[in-house]
Amino acid sequence: MYDENDPVARYYDFSFAKASKHETEYFKTVVNEVSGPVGDLCCGTGILTLEFSDSSRKIYAIDSSSSMLQVLRSKLTPEKKVEVVQNNMNSFTLPEPVERIISRDAFFHNLTPDDQRSTLKCVYSALAEDGVFAFNIHVPNPKFLASIGTESARKFVERGRYGIPNSEDLLVISQISEVDYYHQVITTTLKFETLDRFDHLKKTEFSSWKSRYTFPQEIFYLLELTGFKLRNTFGTYDRKPWNENTMLIIEARKDS
Ligand SMILES: C[S@@+](CC[C@H](N)C(=O)[O-])C[C@H]1O[C@@H](n2cnc3c(N)ncnc32)[C@H](O)[C@@H]1O
Fold it and tell me: pTM above 0.85?
């Protein structure tokens, strides 16, 4: 996913990936419960990693994508104690136990129950005793799932327009989704169109990824199976309850 030169890595930071104030504050609170090293699993370009990194705290920034990590590396300065770990979330190890692992918008890239279980086992092994894994998944919303399965949904829908930094060009991002109900996998294809200041199309690029939607009870069972206890669940980053119209944010404690 996101190999060399993938448009997602190039456009990520200034388009759809920005973290909201609530997101940043939520993850900061989880991380600041401890003073030792922490992990940012599937850190991407380091949007969250860089919020926590300073000279006093070591952060392990783990991701499998060389292009996303290349962007993160370009933003690192010597005083930031960030150790980049290029690895898959379902097979990574860390050189020392960490008390917190956070992961924003990534667990759903585990496409099978086996991968999900392997990832949770890796997180369990990487955590110190009583360590916490804070991450989010999408709660499958039946109406949304039904709507993307219809023939009329087979067209690109605009997701946003963003000024490209240091240029007069505009980036228009559109998206189309396709669902495999049996495997609970959604394929999302993004179209990136670069327009000049006269709105003329200069370039069109595509990228796609797969994500697996997971029913809440599935993930709760998986967490139990892999040795975690639920500490908290929320539907929003300002800690409102979850339901079928929200995502599901989970804080799972290593039960040792
Ligand atoms: C939507 S981005 C989220 C990035 C970051 N957490 C953030 O909040 O901006 C998903 C990230 O997961 C990474 N990823 C996807 N599958 C992965 C896997 N199996 N192992 C490790 N990283 C993976 C991608 O490379 C990408 O950087």
Answer: yes
- Distance (Å, whole) CA 73 – CA 46: 9
Residue 178 exposed, middle or buried by CB count within 10 Å (0-12, 13-18, 19+):
middle
Q: Are residues 31 and 158 in the same domain?
A: no
In this structure, the answer to whether residues 164 and 190 fall within a common structural domain is: yes
Q: Are residues 54 and 93 in the same domain?
A: yes
The confidence band for 18, taking pLDDT boundaries of 50, 70 and 90, is confident
Would the CB of 2 count as within 6 Å of ligand 1? yes
Residue among 38, 51, 65 to mutate when testing ligand 1 (max atoms within 8 A of CB): 65
Rounded mean pLDDT, 70-75: 94
What is the pLDDT at residue 150?
A: 83
Token reading at 34: 């401890």
Instruction: Say if 2 falls within a structural domain.
Output: no
Whose alpha carbon is nearest atom 15 of ligand 1? 109
175 lines ligand 1 (CB under 6 A): no
What's the CATH number where 111 sits? 3.40.50.150
Dist. CA 197 → ligand 1 center (Å): 32
